[in-house]
């Protein structure tokens, strides 16, 4: 068995793992990234594209914000339409002084790969049978298969950034972790098209279900409609999708939607999931390995970035000053933000979607809450504060 050593073994080569490697490098901390998929597979994944301003600042501080600042679209917030005619704007800049930015996760991943390649970072992709050992000791190990040979990586800490289906969370003993989960009775059918997006991101609560017009860049748009969990992509050619999307928005908005051939189309179920704690021994979880939120609140990628912010700070303090407080407090600190985002995403999902068991009372209550949000300055400020993302804790 071939053996190597590093300070931090990072399991997962998505944006969380790559960003953590980049931030540790800036602190002089060595790391190795181990990813079970190929780089091509990682870069093909279509994910979120709305960044809180705190996330923008973390990416800039990590030295990977140059293209984001050139191509990202800064906007003041998000619109909501309901009842076919009513509208409101979650103007985060006006309410809490923080704008948002539309910049695709695929672009962020590309930027991070470029930064890591430029410094010759150790990234091992297509690793099979990844296994974590000795997490409750001061010398954990990671073993994996690469090109038919068993490899062993000795380290001092393990960062589990390998997503919901990864090995990291499952390596925490079952009697130590508690999992909280809620599955929603619908999914999102989404398409990507090389067409100019609307000037703002707009949610719709319609009698036919939820819809969303989102952005990636000036010539790349992302659109979603609420669909049944058993929906089949073969039943949704582009023409049918565009027709259904447009009917869920008021006529003036529908008329502004530029249609075109989709370059990606997928159906995703919606889930709320949190696993506690986010640390065990020398293992620390970040991103989807520890939590999943419905995409309604645009929190998934932003939570991964905040986890990495807290974890990189904790490791930097440990190696620079011998200070263990931030490592001890990492799970508790990260989970406060995670649960805040999970609750907000659950609330917004309930507010904007149609549920199979909704009564007429439930529907009128939805309308009333949206109306109250449009009229109440204090309620609007509280919602914008959460949508824009709370400041990181010291």
Structure description:
There is one protein chain. This protein has 394 residues and is of the alpha/beta class. The protein has a domain at 2-73 and 101-181 and 271-352: FAD/NAD(P)-binding domain (3-Layer(bba) Sandwich). The protein has 13 helices and 21 strands. The protein has helices at residues 15-26, 39-44, 53-61, 66-71, 92-96, 105-118, 167-170, 238-247, 251-256, 300-321, 325-352, 360-375, 377-388; strands at residues 2-5, 8-11, 31-34, 50-52, 73-75, 77-82, 86-91, 100-102, 122-124, 128-133, 141-146, 149-154, 157-160, 178-193, 201-206, 209-217, 220-227, 262-276, 279-280, 283-285, 291-292. Helix 1 (15-26) packs parallel to helix 6 and helix 10 (300-321) packs antiparallel against helix 11 (325-352). It starts with a strand and ends in a 6-residue tail after the last helix. The relative contact order is 0.17.
The CATH superfamily of one domain turns out to be FAD/NAD(P)-binding domain
Largest β sheet strand count, sense and barrel closure: 8 strands, mixed
User: Which sequence of strands runs across the widest sheet?
Assistant: 7-6-15-16-17-14-18-21
Measured distance between first and last alpha carbons = 43 Å
The class by helix and strand makeup works out as alpha/beta
Classify the helix fraction into a percent range.
25-40%
Per CATH, the architecture of one domain is 3-Layer(bba) Sandwich
Mean pLDDT, rounded to whole units?
A: 96
């Amino acid at each position: 068995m071939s053996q190597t050593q590093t300070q931090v073994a990072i399991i997962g080569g998505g944006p969380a793992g790559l960003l953590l490697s980049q931030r540790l490098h800036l602190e002089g901390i060595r790391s190795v990234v181990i990813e079970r998929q190929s780089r091509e597979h990682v870069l093909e994944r279509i994910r979120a594209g709305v960044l809180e301003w705190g996330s923008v600042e973390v990416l800039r501080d990590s030295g990977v914000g140059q293209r984001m600042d050139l191509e990202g679209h800064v906007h003041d917030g998000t619109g909501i339409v309901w009842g076919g005619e009513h509208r409101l704007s979650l103007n985060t800049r006006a309410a809490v002084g923080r704008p948002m930015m539309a910049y695709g996760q695929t672009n962020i991943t590309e930027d991070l790969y470029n930064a890591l390649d430029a410094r010759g970072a150790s990234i091992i992709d297509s690793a099979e049978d990844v296994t974590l050992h000795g997490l409750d000791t001061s010398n954990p190990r990671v073993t994996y298969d690469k090109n038919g040979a068993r490899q062993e990586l000795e380290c001092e800490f393990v960062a589990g950034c390998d997503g919901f289906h990864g090995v990291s969370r499952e390596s925490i003993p079952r009697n130590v972790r508690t999992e909280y989960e809620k599955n929603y009775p619908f999914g999102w059918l989404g398409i990507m098209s090389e067409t100019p997006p609307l000037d703002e991101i707009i949610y719709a609560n319609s009698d036919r279900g939820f819809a969303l017009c989102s952005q990636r860049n000036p010539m790349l748009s992302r659109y979603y409609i609420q669909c049944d969990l058993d929906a089949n992509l073969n039943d949704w050619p582009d023409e049918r999708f565009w027709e259904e999307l447009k009917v869920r928005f008021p006529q003036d908005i529908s008329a502004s939607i530029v249609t075109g051939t989709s370059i990606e189309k997928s159906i995703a179920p919606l889930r709320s999931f949190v696993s506690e704690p986010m640390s065990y021994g020398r293992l620390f979880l970040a991103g989807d390995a520890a939590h999943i939120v419905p995409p309604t609140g645009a929190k998934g990628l932003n939570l991964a970035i905040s986890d990495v912010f807290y974890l990189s700070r904790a490791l930097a303090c440990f190696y620079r000053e011998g200070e263990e407080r931030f490592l001890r407090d990492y799970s508790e600190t990260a989970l406060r933000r995670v649960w805040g985002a999970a609750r907000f995403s659950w609330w917004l999902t309930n507010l904007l979607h149609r549920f199979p068991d909704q009564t007429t009372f439930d529907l009128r209550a939805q309308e009333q809450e949206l109306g109250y949000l449009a009229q109440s300055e204090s309620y609007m400020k509280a919602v914008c504060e959460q949508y824009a993302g709370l400041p990181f804790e010291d």
